[in-house]
Amino acid sequence: MTIRHIVSWRLAESDPTLKAAQAAEIKTGLEGLRGQIDGMSAIDVGLNVLNPGANWDVVLIADYADEAALAGYQVHPAHVAVAGFIKSVVAERSCVDFQLGA
What we know:
InterPro entries: Dabb, Dimeric_a/b-barrel. The protein has helices at residues 16-31, 67-75, 77-89, and strands at 3-11, 40-47, 58-64, 90-99.
């Protein structure tokens, strides 16, 4: 039962240059988790390219073998480190976790 984890963030920064740098750091940090998390089969991070005033800034789409693998990701030290930075620059977060094919 594959679980898809989708998270979107709106960054708090209003300066476009600083916001882009923060978004890039989030992307690099999250993509750096590839191969480090047991049960994670895919991870992609996208940066918004259209309608910056209306759209969210960063999106994470990741697949996990099951709910236990997703729970393990949440507490993995490498994820916790990246999440600390994300929390420091984010204004809003939206998340959905669902079973693929259900």
